[in-house]
Amino acid sequence: MRKIFLVLIAFFGLTVANSQVKDISFTFSPSAEYTWWDAKAGFNDGTLIGGKLGFGFGEYIELRGVYLQSLDLTTNFENFGLTNFDATLFTQQNAKLTRWGGEFKANIGTKKLMPYLTLGTGVQNIEVNATNFEQIYGTVGLGFKFNIAKRAVLSVEAKNTTYNFNAGSNLLSTVDKISFGVSDADFSTESLSNWAVLGSLQFYLGGRKPGTLSELDEAYLNKFKGGFKGLQLVVEPSIAHISFDEKSLLRDTYFLGGYVGLDFNEYIGLRGFYFKGTVNDEISTSFDNLAMYGVEFRARLNDGNGVTPYLILGGGYLNAADSYLGKNDLNVKSGEFGSGGLGLNIPLGRRVLISGGLRAILTSGDDISNISAPNQIQTHMMYNAGLKFTLGKKSKSPNEVFDTNIKSEEKSQSATNDLKIQKLKNEYSLKLAVLEEDLKKANQEKDVNKAIELLEEKNDLKTALKEINKVSEIQVEKNIENKTPQQETIIQMTPAEFESLIDRILKGLNENSDGNVQKSEVIESKAIDSLNKRIEMLEKIFSESKKTATQESEIKDINVTKDNKKENKEVKKSKSEDRLKNMDDEIELKSNEIKNKETDTLTIKKEIADLQSDDSSIEKNEKLLKYEWSNLFFGYDFSNSGYLNAGIRSHFKITKTNLIFMPEAFVGFGDTTYYGVSGNIIYSVNLKNQNVKPYFGAGVGALHNGNDFKGIYNAILGANLPVISDNLYIDYTMRNTFDYNQISIGYKLPI
Fold this sequence. Notes:
By secondary structure, the protein is of the alpha+beta class. The chain has four domains: about 1-225, Porin (Beta Barrel); about 230-395, Beta Barrel (Porin); about 445-560, no CATH class; about 625-750, Porin (Beta Barrel). Helix content is about 30%, strand content about 40%. An eight-stranded antiparallel β-barrel has the order 1-2-3-5-6-7-8-9. A hairpin with a 4-residue loop joins β24 and β25. It is elongated, with a radius of gyration of 39 Å. The two termini are about 30 Å apart.
């Protein structure tokens, strides 16, 4: 059961660890490790094989589950230091060693030769002659990886693994102890340090290929290039309670103490902690002879604004003084522990937050029911709550850095657009100056037809220049809006839209042509106004041109007969009428378009009214509860002797509220069969960052605990994980004030 629980904990750590990245990759690494065992380990040097499975968040951070198993491992006490050791008398035994746990990996560089750092912890099992010995282990490693394909890298790593073990007592056979004249009393548990070299072939599935930075990776680089200027000192005074495993010699205890550490940015922090136990399992200033200290890594699951869940991974030392007496007044051994869990920050002010968490603490200790038995892994639950105070300049989140880069690019694009607009203005102004000279020359030469053509071309240029000025005004508005990020831009033009508009002006098209710019209703309205003004201008030009043409014709053709004059006038009149007719057709076409838009608008408004009427009708007929979905869940209850459980939940939305009614039924399998039902009310917390959706709730129900039925009350804390799957969630359920504690992983059913 404990092994299954540890696997669930590892999966819990891996799935919840969302680091706010768009590019999440899944990693798989078949691995082999050659170990040079500590002289006191009692083993021949040899090989372990296995693999690592996990997630890459961006290109710099990875979290992985680890499994390794020995190949042909045998005992060896030649260098152990036994005074009477004789290799010819030594009976070599076969052993099997397995490790499973979690590992944090930080990729330091992104060049061809890429160094990385690993930190990990987990459970190690040594089996000899059908007897199992379990220990907590810790690892630290430094390695290099080389890209060998688009989604494959070769890694080579030097690592050190430490654990506590009494090899002399546990690995020497009874015959060997007699042969060498030693007994169990001659040996003690020792801290063993074992060096190894590990090789692995790592494959990236999904996300982007390694060696190419994502947007967030670029933001992290920009953030750290100037050093940790945004470091914040964090102080967290806290109260904690540990419910120790029922098989442990340790007594349930309240602790006073806290955490001190650093937040490197909005997401990642490091804490050192120290807690001192109090007497009689009470909150007081009378302290017991039990303390714990260590280090924690914390990864927040959103950008730190509002209620913020965070992942906890750490370890430390549980120090029981010689004068400390555990259950049944027995002496207790000190030892290392590993921990993992989930916490929550609730802001009270800019620099003050409420911080609390739930941690599973794993130790290797004596079994109270059989002190002489080999040490086994025990699971203890720690709950803490306190205040978090931050000191120092708040660091910018990578999202803020990314937004800054985007604004910089927009500013650069805006400057480019300004230059293009000014260039067009200059070109059209120059053309107008040339036309003015040509027009003067035509007037001097009394060339009426040429003058009319030049006048039309001149006014077309003036119209185009006005359109350029409008674009310039739009660009100025956009620049002003970009300086005030709290407001939305009135008119937003992408570079493609801007280029399209420039092309249309250069081609002499008017604003009512189809194009990308007409995607904005604001620009379309400006185009209609522009068309109306242009029609008025053309009518005025025509009138002036007609008058000028008549005057010039009289000066040039003074000897022409009246019939010829009348004929010329009729021809010109016919041309003018044709032009006016074309303008009338254009006006009528635009008028019809506007009428059609008005008709469409009325139709849409009517449809909206009908829909609102339908919604109102539906709402009136709505029931108190509306079924949404059901889901299956699997979990582990680590109370008493511990047991696996499975169940089903249904979700019903309580109308006109943000609450969910969630009935559930479950069954557990352990030393006996457990089953129960309950009804819960759930509330989802809305966060700006939707990579994780936390929720909490409470409820009541009944449980058959193997002997009889009893009433239960529940408190639930969990989160949906759309970053992995829209249907996946994980949560913690506390029943009857920590009498029963359950971690569950669930999946929404497609019904």
